[in-house]
Amino acid sequence: MLGNTLLYQRIANEINRTSLDIRIGILHAAGSRPESLNLDLADLFKPILVDRTYDYVIKNEIQKLKKFFEYGEKYKPYKYA
Fold first, then answer.
1. I need a surface site. Which of 6, 31, 64, 74 has the fewest CB within 10 A?
2. Quick check: 12 and 38 in contact, CB under 8 A?
3. Res. 74: pLDDT tops 70
């Protein structure tokens, strides 16, 4: 997902700006990726930043769709005239 990718990249950039070693991840260290610290740190922030953003966008889009469509019998959508 795009949100996860952006979060991983942002955290990797911030790690590289500090003196931390990006290869010393704990949870994702067993994988084949040499850079795993950014994945470990992103797991902490993912529910706050990415998931809430997705929930917000989806909820607002559904509200917008409800304004334009009306559901009739057997859930057939009817467009407002």
1. 74
2. yes
3. no
Give residue 40's Cα distance to chain centre.
15
Instruction: Report pLDDT for 70.
Output: 59
Q: What separation, in Å, do the N-terminal and C-terminal C-alpha atoms of the chain show?
A: 36
Longest dimension (CA), the chain: 63
| Residue 65: pLDDT over 80 | no
Which residues in the chain belong to E strands, given as ranges? 69-71, 77-79
Report the helix count and the strand count for the chain, using DSSP H and E. 3, 2
Residue in the block written with tokens 């809430």: 52
* Structural tokens at position 5: 């990718």
